[in-house]
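ugh ok fine here u go
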Amino acid sequence: MMLKVNERVFPGVASAAIRAVLAALFVLCLAAPARAARGVASAWAAQAWAGPQVLLISSYHPGFPTFFRQIEGIESVLEPAGVDLDVEYMDSKRFNSPEDVRDFRHMLADKLARLPRYDLILTADDNALRFALDNRGILFPDTPVVFFGVNDQPLAHSMNDDDRVTGVIEAVSMEETLRAAFTLQPGLRTVYALVDGTTSARADLLTYLSMRSAFPDRNLAVLSLTDLTWAGLAERTRALGPADAILLLSAYRDAAGATVSFDEGLKRILTNTRVPVYDLWEHGLNLGAIGGKIISHFEQGRMAARMGLAILGGTPVRHLPVIEGNEANRYIFDYRVLARFGIDPDALPEGSRVLNSPDSLWSAHTVELSLAAGAMVAMTVLVLLLLAYVSRLRRARIGLRESEERLQMSLEATSDGLWDWCMDPEKVYFSPGYFTMLGYEVDAFPHAVASWLELLHPDDREAARDVVTAHAESGREFRTEFRLRNASGGWTWVMARGKTIDWTRDGRPRRVVGTHTDITDRKRFEERLVQAKEAAEAANRVKDEFIANISHEVRTPLNGVMGMLQLLQTAGLNAEQRELVDTALHSSRNLLRVLNDLLDFSKIQAGKLDIREAPFDLTGLVAESLDFFKLQAVDKDLKLTADIDPSARKNYLGDAGRIRQILFNLVGNAVKFTDKGAITVEVCELWHPEPGRKRLLVTVRDTGIGIAEKDLSRIFAPFSQVDGSLTRAYQGTGLGLPIVSKLVRLMGGNCEVDSEPGKGTAIRFFLSVGDAGGAEAENASAPGPDADRPLRLLLVEDERVNRVMARRLLERMGHTVAEAENGRDCLTRLRDHPFDAVLMDVQMPFLNGLDATRAIRTAPELAHVSTIPVIGLSAHAARHDRTRALEAGMNEYLVKPFEKSDLERALRKVVKAS
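structure:
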């Protein structure tokens, strides 16, 4: 018989019972003599003050979902033992840079230097443990450390060898939760683990991936926020169907760096999916997750506190081995979610707890509980009426005295200043902290509104006064920031909070109270952040300009080198000479590829790389990419093949140039790292949820050297090489695969890598493309009318080597060429001589190519040649440079260095169009 525990809340019974218990306690407290009560309280306070002191370092912040349950578990053990507990928050979910950790260390060191030594350190979650291990020699040497909530199991287990550290591992019940999911959903085929890039998430993801061998007939997939934005995740989860489910591991930060709370992240997931979301932590329950075998943070805190109490009692740390945390895990499910997905609660695992079940204690014992509640309420009312008159004055006095004591302690313990402004009659009070926060002696200036106005910075006075006045009259809480003059003559930034708490009979504000907090350090930090951001942006602009300039300066001479080499290819060379020329040309093209990679990477980083869609022939594109590496493959005796599924042998809408660039990088890498065997490009078409779109799955598979598992995570990192030594066998910039990854993402896809050292590598990528329907792919190389007839051309180029190279190249193609050294000479020649087309350099002295082209199109004296085809020639390779040239009136644009075939294709195109 399976046990299911019902945990539904019964407001009527619970409220009555609580009132009865409170009333009984109240009566007992009043019955005790006041002096005895004060004596017991004083003795307890003295004992607590003298008891052991424990510091808890929490990885996150007090609003983090796990914190309260952890604290409840700890206090359930430490409070009865008279142990004092302090808490410090790292807030590392949101601030975990080296600078943030350094600032937290400095803050904590300053506090520890002024406080008595702690007897024990507790740490919650991974980041806090690592911080304690890295800094204990400085902050709390020789102090025992007890951790809990740690996911990094190798690190936790290694603490068994440390005589000062022990604790409780947070072990998720991954396998049990997956088995429960497959049992509850017989038709479930795929579970998607949802993760982000946090440290704990990466550890849990490794555990999840290790489960694949335990479920060979099911698909354990991954949705990673390191690759997806929140919008992208919503699109992916909306496409899930009845055979799918989600296992939530971590969802705080997406690929764009947008961070949300746990509740907000879960809400976004549930809003965009129609499948169950299984969870491993108790803070996901009652929010819409279906449940699973849940980690209890209360139990973790309680177990860690028991270990700490044993250490405080004299037990050596080495006698307390690290505890496996899954001892506290339990099956817990939400009845409402089970009902939503039609899951029978009787199918739950043995011992499961069911939240929000409709079966309740109240429905089973309505009469008995109603009578008991009525009797309890009647007795409570009777007792309260009898005691009310006797105890009212006494309780009021005690409450007033305690409130005054608490207020005084609070003001002394904080650097904030308290102000109290009574308007009718006008009377103002400033607390001692108000004066000392600004460096003044107490009562150094009058308690008056005029004193505050006089201290205000002139630039802030009007705005601050308007905020306070407006909110005081409306009764709303307000918060504003301004500067006050301090005792040294400088300015202290202050954050003011306040609220109206009393009004006159006609509705005017009578009394406003609030606080002033010194935020000078925060303002300085914000100013440094702004300066750092501006400096980074300036450095990025300088970097982009530098790369663009270097690209231009290298492309110009490289254009001459490659052009001359292409001319040599057409000369009568012997075999050895032809091999030398081919090798030099191949090396020049490799240099050009490095330049293009640098420029593309810079544009991608700046978000300036655009993707355009036009019809293209996928089969031809793959064949062209393989043909480019045919000679290299022959030299290495490699077999290059394409395996294109019949479903993909058609035209699509997409950026053919960028897809070609992806294939060039991947096939080029495969050829480079494969010494024998074969390289295959496989393509098939997949379904896309968006009408009119398709997904292409492309796999580049080789039999090369392979990649070790430890290196897979960094092959897509910019400038990263698997072998970075000076003796590495394969050279490269480390930009090819990062550019591939970025381009694939820009085209709505992602990359995956499977590799085994010594056996080869398979890189798969998905692309989102349009269905071209009957549209024909552009074929720029197809000859048009007049494509092969001799042309009379005007070549405008200021650089002599490039001018000689281009002229000879054109003459070898059978054309007649006239020359001009700048745009001014070009216009002079066009006035008097007829030409079929103009090849125009962009950057020239006296008159540049863009202005010269505008003059050709618009000048009245050149109206007879205003429609002449103009082909731009430039070493500026950015897309906006091409756009600017076309807007100036150029018909085509070639980037230096260009191939002879590029020049032929451009001439065919412009002559055909004219």
